[in-house]
Design brief:
Blueprint (H helix, E strand, L loop, with lengths): L16 E8 L2 H11 L8 E8 L2 E2 L5 E2 L6 E8 L11 H14 L6 E3 L3 E10 L3 E13 L16 E8 L25 H21 L9 H7 L7 E6 L5 E9 L5 E4 L5 E4 L2 E5 L2
Parallel strand pairs: 1-2
Antiparallel strand pairs: 2-5, 3-4, 5-9, 6-7, 7-8, 8-9, 10-11, 10-14, 11-12, 12-13
Helix pairs in contact: 2-3
Length: 281
């Protein structure tokens, strides 16, 4: 039996609203709908957390579910005041925030472009190498029409979903390529502590990004992300979105939009904005 979150400890500096529900099909879908229905009720940043998510959504429409109270399923509402072309960095910023949260517990984590957080493993698996996935991230822009209540010229609302495996046993994980903080030796996988730290790290990195006008170089975020990336500097195969083909080469960098630059064997550099990336070595 996994313990519930301790609601009396869920005070997160900088957050306007933090709500916990017992069950949600998808915190992202629920928060997107709530923001569209009443934007003023969800000032940024706000968070919706479910003790049990029954129909979570990942990239490319994939679904997933975790046992009740074993992980953290969190959706954060943001209205980042940065150029629209920079919004692709949001999942990467969330990954960096999760890495910092986990590293506070003495576990060495890494980010996999574009939306996964990994922990070291003792054996290799296809696509991840000596890593296992501990968290996934999904960003969705809230489609606010003229009647949605948003002020003219206001920053766009974005819901950023984070699913983090905390106390799952090996039998409770959905796939063998996953892990949890507990399985990785995290010294005290208290979900409430992890949640408060994670939201605090998310707020801090987004604030730095906004203060730099969305410039990941000036803010130092690009350098920090690069330092914890398991993707950059490795040989990868990108399965491009929309059945647009496959691209193989070395992952050599990220641009201002968060897109991945891959250098092929012919020396050509191509930019990937979306797709599944497999680590080949």
């Amino acid at each position: 039996m996994h313990p519930s979150l301790y609601l009396d400890r869920l005070s997160v500096p900088g957050f306007a609203r933090v709500e916990v529900v017992e069950t949600s099909p998808s915190t992202n879908a629920e928060l997107v709908a709530a923001v569209r229905d009443d934007p003023a009720a969800w000032p940024a940043p706000s968070a919706l957390i479910a003790e049990h998510q029954t129909a979570g959504r990942g990239r490319a429409g994939r679904s997933w579910e975790t046992p009740p109270r074993a992980g953290l399923t969190v959706s954060v509402l943001l209205r980042p005041r940065v150029p629209a072309g920079s919004l692709g960095w949001l999942p990467l910023l969330a990954g960096l925030a999760v890495v910092r949260t986990v590293s506070d517990g003495g576990v060495t984590a890494a980010v996999k472009w574009p939306n996964d957080v990994l922990l070291p493993a003792v054996d290799t698996v296809a696509g991840l190498g000596l890593y296992r996935k501990v968290a996934g991230i999904l960003a969705e822009v809230v489609p606010e029409g003229p009647d949605a209540g948003g002020a003219a010229g206001a920053a766009p609302a974005v819901v950023l979903g984070i699913g983090l495996n905390v106390s799952q046993s090996a039998e409770e994980l959905p796939v063998p390529t996953a892990t949890s903080l507990a399985l990785a030796g995290y010294p005290r996988p208290d979900r409430t502590d992890v949640l408060v730290r994670m939201l605090g790290e998310m707020h801090a990195v987004v604030r730095r990004w906004e203060e730099a006008g969305g410039d990941v170089v000036a803010s130092g975020i690009l350098a920090e992300y690069t330092a914890v990336s398991a993707t950059l500097g490795t040989r990868v195969r990108a399965e491009l979105a929309g059945d647009s083909g496959v691209l193989e080469g070395e992952a050599v960098g990220l641009d201002g939009t968060g897109a991945l630059t891959i250098r092929t064997d012919t020396g050509e550099e191509r930019t990937v904005t979306a797709g599944d990336v497999w680590h080949l070595r």
